[in-house]
Amino acid sequence: MQFRSTRSHDTLVSFKEAVLHCLPPDGGLYVPASVMDMRRFFLYMDSDTNYPELVSTIAPLLLQGELNPYSAARVTESAFDFEPELQQLDERFSILTLYNGPTGIFKDFGIAFLAAVLEELIKNNGRAMVLSASRGDTGPSMAAAFKNRQGITSVILYPSGPIRGLDPDTFVPNGGNIIPIQIRGTFDDCQRLVCETINDRPFAERYGVTSANAINIGRLLPQALYYLYAFIKIKKILNGDLIFSVPSGNFGNLIAGLYAWKFGMPVNGFIAAMNANNAFGDYIQGKTFLPHSLINTTSPALDVTMPSNYERLASFYEEAPAIMRNIVYPASVGDAVTRRVMEQVWKKYNVLLNPHNAVAFAAAEQLLPSLDPSGHVVVLATGHPAKESRIIKETTGQEVEIPRRLSMLHNKTDPIALIDPQLDAVEGAIAGGFASCSV
Ligand SMILES: *Cc1c(COP(=O)(O)O)cnc(C)c1O
Prior knowledge:
The chain is an alpha/beta fold. It is 39% helix and 15% strand. It has a domain at 84-105 and 220-404: Rossmann fold, CATH 3.40.50. The chain binds pyridoxal-5'-phosphate.
């Protein structure tokens, strides 16, 4: 499969180039250039197929010529010591649990695959510096995925404030390959600096700079695989439509679902489940999109006003607006309903939902009657209940047991450097081997 910029159909690049360069020179984002029908490969997988089998079968087909089956098996094994889990609740609803990774957030899936595949792609003849911005949970996810990867240094830019959930033993001065850097600025500064550094082509080429943020297609694409996994687990019981309900903030997860559909997954719709920050629903319905001001809710990962994947979603709509209007359905769920659904789902199914997951569940309940009454909705559970134990206690009365790997995410660490929010400061730190800027 080849990749192109959202802004041009002319230049095609390989997966390796898209992953290593991260951003196309024209300011767009990389997207798959062609549709690949994979139906004949996964339609006949049965529900006994496990996740590593699925990944190591489909990934080398998608990345033909770049990832052979042996490499794919190695990547799968080194990326995933965790798996998605599909739990059917009744005829109408299933939950796809995606929070079994090291940090209890579905983002572990894309980051883990990216880290493992990057190591495989540069094996023998390269090195990479992965420069990423983090404000909370993604830093530990990146540190877990990239630690000890051959030829790779992972530099994580943090805004002002505490840095949590990293293990100092993995830091470069202690013989590891992780470098947390604090920027005197905001998360937006960190994201901007990542893009500016990558867009300084000569510099980025010289040091092999790329990113593990969602701008990297190598993180987004593998997320399509858990949709296929849900499909092979659920297909036997389907009588009507299959719908996925996706808690959506920057819309990476939803776009990964659309890729699965492009690969041939028989699916009838995706619910873009938003909280009160729902302005993007206008765009999905074909109206003009005007970002609103930010509203703080009980599902903070969905508190996004301008989705960073906007251009990727827009490229689907430019191609086929009428089809898109009939496959992506926006829904908006307020905090009061979110809380009520957390309580109801506990009482009815004995399942604890993190508020992000509850937004998707509530959106599914809201829309299912108007879609196909005999349809089945797979609700994506993106966050571990233990990450929101206080609100779960309030809504269900239940104490959530906190796994040890998640309680460690509260441990504070110091950055190994503190720098100003300017491109030359970041480039100076990289060029100087991070020596001259200790805190
Ligand atoms: C990041 C995140 C989301 C939103 O995913 P997008 O791909 O940005 O739409 C949903 N739930 C949780 C728990 C998250 O951390």
